[in-house]
Amino acid sequence: MQSYRNEPPVLLADLNEYITCKLCKGYLIDAVSITECLHPFCKSCIVKYLNERYDCPSCGILIHQSHPLNYISFDRTLQDIVYKVVPDLRRKEKLLRENFYRMMGKSPPASE
Question: Which CATH number fits the domain that encloses residue 31?
Fold first, then answer.
């Protein structure tokens, strides 16, 4: 069996292109993938984008024009990877959401 102990560690900078949204350039939050091409985006970013356009921002493949939101799916595995490799991202995102709800005069959902 081959040993990987001599392999250099993987740096976060080496993973950034795989765990960042091509629209907002930030780390993926509520990661979703377009079902036709599997390119990932933040849910809020791609929903906003699909209000104006019907193509993948990464590869240009056409997404269903009348119901484009039916062609994105939550990518739980990718989101879990992002939270594992980016220290404190989950905690910071939770705090931002809680603050947003408070500013709106509402209580954060229990799952938050």
Answer: 3.30.40.10
Residue at 5 is within a domain: no
3-state secondary structure of 33: strand
Which pTM was predicted?
0.80
Has residue 106 been placed in a domain? no
Paired with 55 in beta bridges are 62
C-alpha distance from residue 82 to each of 3, 51, 53, 90 (Å): 26, 26, 27, 9
Tokens for 14? Answer: 């080496």
Domain count within the chain: 1
Q: Tell me the C-alpha distance between 83 and 16, whole Å.
A: 13
pLDDT in tens, 57-91: 999 999 988 899 999 999 999 999 999 999 899 89
